[in-house]
Design a protein that fits this description.
5 helices, 6 strands, 20% strand, CBS-domain
């Protein structure tokens, strides 16, 4: 099974100059745990996720006692810069090995140097569950 067959696409993304409040809103509204961060040319420059925002909120809370400081922060100030990616035409086992080896839960999917989707553990579990249902004849009616 190839990554492109089970990834979530298109990827919901933000730009490095966007406000953190926009990222928080997208994470919540789109029910995703992290977002690829793109530069002005549309190239991947980082990821921003729940962990980055929670860390920032904890820092803000310890210094000023409230959580609204993330609103006046740019995504580029919160994002993770060291990003691991997977190619759309890679086998899912390559993604699983990378996830298991790094502890990552989500990987940006790249095709021709552009983010075309995101692959999460949830996507992989969903694909495995569908394979099991098909093998049992539940989806094919046999």
């Amino acid at each position: 099974m190839l990554v492109r067959e089970i990834m979530t696409s298109p990827a919901v993304s933000v730009h490095e100059e966007d406000w953190a409040a926009h990222a928080v809103s997208l994470l919540d509204r789109m029910n995703v745990t992290c977002l690829p961060v793109l530069d002005a040319a549309g190239r991947l420059v980082g990821l921003v996720g729940e962990a980055d925002l929670a860390r920032r909120l904890a820092d803000a809370s310890s210094t000023n006692g409230h959580h609204r400081r993330h609103v006046a922060t740019r995504v580029q100030d919160l994002m993770t810069h060291d990003v691991r990616t997977i190619r759309a035409d890679d086998d899912v086992n390559v993604a699983l090995a990378l996830m298991n080896g790094t502890g990552l839960k989500t990987l940006p999917v790249i095709l021709h140097e552009r983010v075309v989707g995101m692959l999460s553990r949830r996507d992989i579990v969903r694909a495995l569950a569908l394979d099991d249902l098909e093998a049992d004849g539940v989806l094919t009616g046999t």
